[in-house]
Amino acid sequence: MRFNVSQLLKERVGATRSFTFEDEPVELGEPLGAPVFDGEARLTRTDQAILVDAKLRGESVEECSRCLEPARVPLRLHFAEEYFPSIDVYMGAPLPAPADAFRIDHNHILDLADAVQQYAFTVAPMAPLCRPDCAGLCPTCGANRNEGACGCREDDLNPQMAALLAWRETELEE
Would you list the domain boundaries of the chain? Predict the structure, then answer.
């Protein structure tokens, strides 16, 4: 999702461009990988920068937090951010920008990847599940309980947990 905004930077304040895109991959890094996004972006010229209002839909494949199988995670992003030019479009002179601001590169290319990455991490679940009723892995043998029973007995407990279980039983009796 890269846009050449050199002409938009030369236009009056309030000028806009609208873009729609399909199947745009964005590298988000671990653990989200490189999901493919569909959506639209509206770029508006402001007095110092370009305001981007983007609505994106995508899907990431992560590892299920219970059974470690692939889990599809829908990503719905909506953000509005200002991108500041790093080079004056008329003179070619470097321009200052506010700290922690998104930048338009020296070739006047506005790249949404950094903003998409930041917003995707805020909406992605901390513990993704392959399905809501995922049974997870057996703590004794490691078998995937979604594929069937593993044959381990429920009372095969870690000896360190036996004292806790005994305490629980006495609390329930009282």
Answer: 2-123, 138-174
